[in-house]
Every structure is written in C-alpha cells, then in structure tokens.
Recover the amino acids of this structure.
C-alpha cells in the first residue's frame, strides 16, 4: 500500500527538551532505531504511535505531525502572535 | 553508542556466508562422488566452516538480526514488524526458488533422494534468509543492537 509521507518535529522537540533517542523510545515503547527512522521521516508511524509521541511531548498531534512540510516552530509562534495581535 | 555496519559490509558478509555454505556442500558432494581422500575433504570443509561461523556471528548474531528474525510479534515494534514482513516475503520467494532448483537438479541427476547435507543447507537457509534479507536491504543496522 502506497502511503503519503508524514512530516514531523520529533528531532527538534527531542533536542529542545534534552531527551535522548533511547529515552524517547523507552517512553513510547519502540526500538531506539525506530526513533531515528521517524526523525529522518523514513517511516510513517501508526496513529497510536503518533498519539503516544505527541502525548509524551504534551502537544497536540497536529503540532508534531503533518502531511505537509512543517514550518520552523519560531515562525509558527511569530505567526500565532501576529494573529492574536490582530 | 552502537557502531553502524554499512550496507556494503553486510552484503559482503552475507554473500561470503552463503558462498562458504555452498563450498561445504560442493566439497562433500563432489569429494565423495569422485572418491577424494577424507583428509582432503576435511581440509576444504574446516576453513569453509570457520568462515561460515565467523560471518554468521559478524552479520547475523552481533547485529541482532538473527534475534530479530526469530523474535515473537509482541517483542518487536511496528516498524520492525513491517521490516520482518518484507524480509519474510522476500526470503519465502528465494527459498521457494532454491527448493525448485534443488528438486530439478535432483530429478535431472536421477537421484532417488535429496542428500542429507543439501537438506541441512536448505534448513540453514530457511533460518538465515529472513535475517539476510534485512541485512541486504536495511538502511541502518547497528552492531550490538
């Protein structure tokens, strides 16, 4: 079955919070190499795994995963602030 | 941090492993058929068995691929399950083709039975082919993983 590529912010979030691949892997119940595959966007997670990762970072799933290329978080914050300022 | 073993290294080790297995089968088979001295056959088999063991440890055991290929479904994650499915699909195809070749050669040679060593080699392949398919195709395989 051919699937769409999923984009994610796992690598950015993990580095931002100082979490190792091994720690994240243990927390969400996968092999640590799987985290590498997810970060390189070479593997699309199941819905369950996507939710587990999002819950680990305490963020909504659409902030961590997307079907289109993700903007840098700084840009997202800036746009959010501009929208709120309107 | 675990050291990565490159795809080229893995492919070379898998090829050497299977070639050494074929060499053992060939030497015993041809040696017996042509009445070679047992010491001569042993002189060929022992180094080949050494290479077979060393490459097995290097590419299947130390990388954890053997363990992965024999792990129960609840001990692997969803990506590993996907990798296993693909490797099993490939190895079934290769194994079926090998069995057809063995049966065909046996039929052409008009032998009544498949030699025990060939059957043993097929059994070895049945167990190592899934791990070999992963070693051959996977992007990232780590030593000691």
């Amino acid at each position: 079955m051919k699937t769409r590529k999923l984009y994610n912010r796992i690598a950015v979030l993990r580095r931002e919070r100082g979490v190792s691949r091994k720690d994240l892997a243990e927390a969400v119940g996968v092999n640590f190499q799987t985290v590498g595959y997810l970060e390189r966007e070479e593997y699309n997670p199941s819905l369950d795994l996507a939710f587990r990762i999002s819950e680990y970072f305490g963020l909504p799933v659409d902030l961590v995963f997307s079907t289109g290329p993700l903007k840098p978080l700084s840009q997202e914050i800036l746009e959010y602030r501009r929208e709120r300022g309107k | 941090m675990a050291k990565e073993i490159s795809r080229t290294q893995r492919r070379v080790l898998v090829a050497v492993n299977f070639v050494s297995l074929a060499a053992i089968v060939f030497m015993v088979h041809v040696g017996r058929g042509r009445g070679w001295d047992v010491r001569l056959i042993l002189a060929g088999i022992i180094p080949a068995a050494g290479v077979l063991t060393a490459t097995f440890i290097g590419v299947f055991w130390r990388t954890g691929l053997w363990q992965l290929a024999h792990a129960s479904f609840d001990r692997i994650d969803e990506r590993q399950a996907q990798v296993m499915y693909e490797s099993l699909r490939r190895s079934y195809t290769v194994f079926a083709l090998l069995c057809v070749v063995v049966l065909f050669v046996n039929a052409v040679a008009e032998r009544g039975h498949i030699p025990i060593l060939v059957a043993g080699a097929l059994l070895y392949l049945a167990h190592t082919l899934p791990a070999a398919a992963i070693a051959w195709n996977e992007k990232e395989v780590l030593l000691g993983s």
Q: What stands out?
A: The interface with chain A takes residues 76-80, 82, 139-140, 142, 145 of chain B (CB under 8 Å). Residues 7-137 of chain B form one domain. Chain B has one domain: 7-137. The two ends of chain B are 10 Å apart (CA to CA).
